[in-house]
## 1
Amino acid sequence: MCGEDYNRFGELRMIMHQIYEFKKGIRNLVLCTVTPQCAEIIKARLERQGIGFLTQAVGGSKVNLFFGNSSCLDAAACFVDKPLNLLTPEEDYMLGTMLGYDIRMQCERFCRRRAMV
């Protein structure tokens, strides 16, 4: 196994755990930033398991792969049509909350970002 294969294996193990957490109801939405090769493998697995997903290119070497609850994916699709660093403070807050980030920290982040606008 070469270094690239080992890194890909590590990425895939983490994703399999996130799929497990989604199926157990721990997460409603998951975001993974992976290589395009890994994204294809993961998308095939998600399709086999009937889990919806959304992809977003991040330059040539990475892909953001969102998967989870269909209503969360529908909401995310409304604003992930641009790079994540260009989200408005409101969009950033909403996405972070849907991904299950700590609410207090999301509120602090939102207030900091709003003060910069």
## 2
Amino acid sequence: MNPKLKEIINKYIPYFVSVLGIILICFFVFKLLNSAEKEIVTYKTKKGQEIYFYIGEKKYEFSSQIVISSDNEIITVKTENYNFDFGSEPIYFKNKNEVLFPNRMSVVFTKNSYIQNKINKLSKIVLDGSLYIQNKNLNYPVNDAFLYDGNDLFFFLNETEIKIGSYSEKLSPFSYAVYNYNKELFMYDYKDDRMIYFPNVEENVLATNKDYVINLGTDSIIHKDGSKLLMKNLDFLNKLG
């Protein structure tokens, strides 16, 4: 080998090795973070367990086994005869005080400065003497809170009153409300199992209870010192637990 060429190679090999090492480290870190965020998970109901959910105003009920799978941003609900692409709509278990959330949610603690934490897809709220948020890695007691999907859906653990101008509607615990960009308001009352729908709502929509006032149009908490916007991008939140 040409001595001059050999000298050049020996001079720059350490730099090349260092750069290659940095690239490889970055690659593996990226793969690790990406796989952690992807959260490919599957949930199967027990055979014979009756479940139901609403998409808009339409109610769907099933007693056959359902399979819910999450592949990054796509959530699919499969039954013997149906196949749904799903959003954040809660799935209710009949004759059990349990609700399954197909998508990621945030938990907003109403007696702790409205701190938000996120929970994984396919987590459940279970009433067993007290309220618990459960998934394969979590069994966290929670009572004074509500859940928010970072978009339009608010799930209430406690009785909450929805106010639209002079109109009001009391929702029982385990109920939810969706106020979307089309100015459509959906309110599901768990106790009476009924969906209430209002199109073209232009007034402020407020969810109130002894611990909070939520403006569903601006996704903000109203409190004595002003207001606080809820975090919509759940990626920036710490996981619960």
## 3
Amino acid sequence: MSEILKDIQEWRNVYNKIFPKGESLLFLMYNLQPTGITKSLFSLLRNLINEGYEVKLLVCVRGEKDLPSPIVPIYLYNSENEMWKMIGSNTIVIPFEQVYDRVVAYDGILSTWLATYLKYVNKKIAWLHAPYKISHVGFEAGYVREVYRHMDHLVAVSYDVKQTYLDALQIEEAHIKVIYTKLDSQIIREQSRKELFIKEGLVAVSVGRLVTEKGFERLMSVHKKLVDEGIQHELWIVGDGELKQELKNRIHDLGISQTCKLLGYHDNPYPIMNRADVIVSASFSEGLPLAMMEAMILHKPIVATNILGNREVLKANMGMLVEDNEEGLYEGMKLMLRQESLRKAYEMKLESSVPFLFEVGR
């Protein structure tokens, strides 16, 4: 208990240093597509607005599926082609001259690079969401170091992510702070009760973008193996992304169309998660697993690969960490699906825990 409260106080001190009271803030995003980064941004913006900050949001590219923002965004370009044409001609026009106390480049090196062009800002901050090697594929370390050199602060979403940047860029540890995404547990629980999913039998749910690093292909293989062994359950996958058609084809090829469902993207996934008997993360890589944190707030048993991000969130045995391969996922899911007493034990541990670090400021 005292250790967690100490961590919460440390988190609050860092938060107040990055966002001093009374200062105006400008956030930069590449786009507002339905990703965990966008959701975490909106959660942060709502908290800052509620705390009385003046906040603006500047977005590089307008997308077809942009999520509704808690504040009206200012778009720089209507398409990627328009943006790259302007960048190629070295013509970047920022549509205002208001002085902001701080700019926050929230979603990667492109928005950080754009932040270096802003003249009317006193302090510049870059947010780091994923391990260095995942976030900077194709970028030379020297170039990345030079871009981040212009930032007054770097903020990592977890201590694991922070360490990957320290190792890769050899920068001073004091230059990188850690701030977990803040989640409103009351809103999540209220939204989880807005719909009721009535379904007999066991249900495993996995939430995330349909991309390679989320490991849905191997999760489907594990599901197929468990069903073939007589462990009857359904696998629901919530999310959208570039692998949608490939995953549909895989479901067909594996012959699991009756038990594995692609449910698409949901603005409110919490009723689906609330129906789950177990939440599964088969990811190869995570910075700070937002869906897992939401599952913890809903007191759901979790099976997750033992990777950066996952193990930081599930420390103190808050969920089951398994080896980062199909066999590990298979053994973990088999145990969790077969043993109701094990699921209840994890539920009780989550229910009886003190506020999680990512619930601070409720």
